[in-house]
User: Fold this.
Amino acid sequence: MTPERAARIEYAAARRQMNMTVVLENVHDPHNIAAVLRSCESVGMTEIYVLYTEEHLIKRGLKVGKRTSAGARKWVDVHLYRDLDRCLKAVKAKYSLIYGTHLGQSSRSIFEMDFTQCFALLLGNEADGISEKAMQYVDRNIHIPQMGMVQSLNISVSAGVILYEVLRQRMSKGMYKNNPTQTEEQGKAIKADFYLRHEEGRKGDWALEEDWEA
Assistant:
């Protein structure tokens, strides 16, 4: 391992944000999942949740484009679920708020939100967005302000815009340099895990719900 690589591992591990995640509901295109994963890794997430309730997606299982993810898959854990209630209850148990990305009268601009607190960002699929059932778990609904005629962005673009607003807010509060989301023990564990991932060339963990049948 080169000194530069070791320094990068130390830098990234120390800045991992333990109190934020993304949930993807029935996202069809593996390239979109990979692109979102890349943005998640870039802003310091440790894990994401992928929820498949549509039969053809369950049978397909998780596929992430190697080129699109650009190595991010190695550094982020993925929790794969096929039961919506189990997935979102697991998320609720760990993260204080779920922000939904559903354009509506009750939604608030991402620039009005406080993304320095503990949260999960729920993104729906390319055609239908977030399902009505999933919306029942949403605490606050947010949107990206748009000035054009077409009020729609690709899911991976939307994720990138929102996550970089998250990054901006957290940087302005010093949450990456002096990371309040990690305990000392967590920081040591993340660093040790990153070194192992580098040495073994392994990807991030895949955590499947117990009754997954693919």
Remarks:
- Residues 155-172 form the longest helix (18 residues).
- The helical segments are 3-14, 30-42, 55-60, 66-69, 84-94, 132-135, 155-172, 184-200.
